[in-house]
Amino acid sequence: MMLSPEEWSALLLSLRVSLWSVAIMLIPGIGCAWLLARKKFYSKALVDAIIHLPLVLPPVVVGYLLLLALGRRGWIGHWLYDNWGVEIAFTWRAAAIASAVMGFPLLVRAVRLAIELVDIRIEQAARTLGASPWRVFLTVTLPLSLPGILAGVILAIARSLGEFGATITFAGNIEGVTRTLPVAIFTYTQTPGGDPFAMRLVLISVVVSLAALIVSELLARRIQRRIGLAS
Amino acid sequence: MISASINFARPQFSLDVRFEANARVTGVFGPSGAGKTTLINLIAGLERPDAGSIALNRQTLFDSALGIDTPAHRRHLGMVFQEHRLFPHYSVKGNLLYGSRPGGEELNRIAAILELQPLLQRRVHQLSGGERQRVALGRALLSNPQLLLLDEPLISLDLRLRQQIIPYLKRVRDTLALPMLYVSHDLAEILQLTDQLLVLENGRVAGHGRYADLVHDDAVLAVVHDRGMRNVLAARVHSHVHGDGISILEIGPQHEPPLSSQLVAPLTSAAPGASVTVSILPWDIALAADIVREVSIQNQIHGMVTRCTAHERSMLVEIDIGLPVIAEISRRSAASLNIQVGRPIVCLIKSHAIQYLDAM
Hints:
The complex is a heterodimer. By secondary structure, chain A is mostly helical. Chain A has helices at 5-38, 44-56, 59-70, 77-84, 92-117, 120-128, 133-144, 146-161, 165-170, 181-189, 195-226. Chain A is built from eleven helices and no strands. In chain A, α1 runs parallel beside α5 (92-117) and α5 (92-117) packs antiparallel against α8. Chain A is globular and about 70 Å long. The mean pLDDT of chain A is 90. By secondary structure, chain B is of the alpha+beta class. Chain B has two domains: 2-224, P-loop containing nucleotide triphosphate hydrolases (Rossmann fold, 3-Layer(aba) Sandwich); 231-356, CATH 2.40.50.100. In chain B, α4 (129-142) packs parallel to α5 (159-175). The two termini of chain B are 32 Å apart. The chains are: A mainly alpha, B alpha+beta. Chain A binds chain B through residues 119, 121-122, 124-133, 136, 139-140, 143-144, 226-229, 231, and chain B through 44-46, 71-79, 81, 83, 85-89, 98-99, 101, 123-125, 139-140, 143.
């Protein structure tokens, strides 16, 4: 199946946006997951609720809040533009940020679960061997939760490939700039005679998502063998 | 030297102990729930006392009054846990080297002592239970600790495997200048490594000192008596008498023949000259004023009463037969034999009352 330039542009943009969204949220996501899994603190329930908010809010609301904060006149966006000349809203960066915010709770949930499953007694053993908390995290907790982190990343990428509401509100629908696969599908369905084009993009979406799932499954098996969890 | 004065209270349990341990190996003995593991975790810094102080070789690790609480990773203590707690994502070698510090023991030396060389490239899940504990021991030793904490390291192994690990522990004790706290609820296990005991019960120290002295104390006896109280003796195989199904053992200092005694024991597979460890229950030792003629009992050993204490139901008599053994007899027998310190006595021990503790 040959793809038209518009289809290629939507597919590549979607992939770029999803990879960047994961890149943005991976480290903060693992950090939050570790805090929630391993630490007791006063406002834990509140932090947990805030992290999960994008999961329950309508995506349009998230997109609108992002626009209020990061738009050219928003309180962060305005500062960014005045000092650095950086524009976020209605660029591909906005699509990546929207995806990151929407995927964040999924990533944190998966990683938190994985960290909770790491035997805390093995971490204790590492401490008695002289490992600082950082070293324990990097050499024991992180490698042993790798399968869960991978699952979280795949989940976040999949969520990002399907992100629509927050993206269209915060990044808009600009061909070649912010028109990701779902936004492109939506656009074709709104265009007379666009149904065949929409179908082609639907097919592409299915293939890409399936490929991501299969690759993640293969990777997870390999990691599990490597860290000795599977016999 | 480790000195500790610890208060630690939890809703279901409280620990309140004070001791100073100087011995090469101090056995921490007590029934389950006595607070042994908690004590070890507090010393290691894995849990925090409510109040008190812990010092190792005059260096304060914890002091609630001074606000000192050295984190676990800076305490330089080696620990072997009930479960192996090896890193599943590292090879055996990776595990061994995880905590190694410059200036510490070398991998090759420790691997030789614990016979780990053939295992170095293996993954943890390819090891047997006994091998895992040996690797865990090696890993702790390679972290160059000032004190080795062993928390029931053999409890997850079956009886036969336990006896295979003990020789390695003895080798570590004898080749490395490293003090150890060895926790166990199995007295026979501890007595194979040391005669210095710290006896815990209900979160309190019931007694601390040499085993043969401690058993005369009512509080310690109450803990020890029905929990495997026994004499554990190091012996050497002298010869076998296959036709009679017996082996002749020598106990006592090897180079002082007048003090060493011979024991007739069940036949062992250990070769003449080999070291074995035997166990004799105190109530399996009978006492007589003199050698008894025409009796089935094979062992009649001359000794001298060095200590005796009357308890509720019985009399504990410590006899020097070249090394101290404890016999338990009824108070009535003690009175009729006129048992008192300094009295020469003959210990009667049936050969089948002698049990071998080590299979090797």
